[in-house]
Design brief:
Blueprint: H1 2-6, H2 8-33, H3 37-70, H4 74-79, H5 84-111, H6 117-140, H7 144-149, H8 155-175, H9 177-190
Length: about 200
């Protein structure tokens, strides 16, 4: 009964699709900051921290699907796994590069570094992440509209979960805003723009 109210595998698919849509918008904003990172570093760090809870929720929805499939849950087995390349190559690359990207980003906020090894690791993990994520998006793009349009019980709960993840992300981003401002000041001082 609870599975029917929650939508089962179709509900999980819809939650993943809704999250993907939200993440695409936030990642587009994050990507736009790269056009002028020196002056938009505070925004870059703020959006990056805001992204952590929604990204963690996306990992959870995908992990749930994977676990249910490999444990033999009938409705997940009927749906089948993602394509073998997406499952065996792209997914592990996304997981590793995402953890590295956000981990180094948080470390940069904590240390206040604007150049050096940590910055290089952040940049390298970004390149790996862009390649893996682009392949992932291309592999699932055609499925996204269908999953979003589908009528599945439990939509309000899924929207509430995403809203909660965004609210948590906003709280984390707001709490780390002073560190982001400090990083911005250090970056502008490093290139001689800060006259204070």
């Amino acid at each position: 009964m609870h599975r029917r109210r929650a939508g089962g595998s179709s509900g999980n698919e819809q939650l993943t699709a809704l999250l993907a849509t939200v993440l695409l918008v936030l990642l587009a904003i994050e990507g736009a900051t790269l056009l002028d990172l020196r002056s938009l570093l505070t925004v870059h760090a703020f959006v990056g921290m805001l992204l952590i809870p929604p990204v963690a929720l996306k990992f959870a929805t995908v992990g749930w699907r994977m676990a249910r499939y490999y444990l033999g849950a009938a409705e997940y087995v009927r749906r089948g796994p993602p394509h073998i390349v997406l499952r065996a190559v792209v997914a592990p690359a996304i997981a590793a590069s995402t953890i590295a990207l956000f981990g180094t980003g948080v470390a940069l906020l904590v240390t206040g570094e604007t150049n050096g090894t940590l910055v290089s690791l952040h940049q390298a993990s970004f390149i790996a992440w862009v390649v893996a994520t682009s392949l992932h998006v291309l592999g699932h793009l055609l499925d996204l509209p269908r999953a979003l349009r589908r009528r599945v019980p439990g939509l309000a709960a899924r929207v509430a979960m995403i809203g909660s993840a965004l609210a948590l992300g906003l709280a984390v981003a707001t709490l780390t805003l002073p560190a982001a401002d400090h990083l911005q000041d250090a970056a502008t001082a490093h290139i001689g723009l800060d006259r204070h």
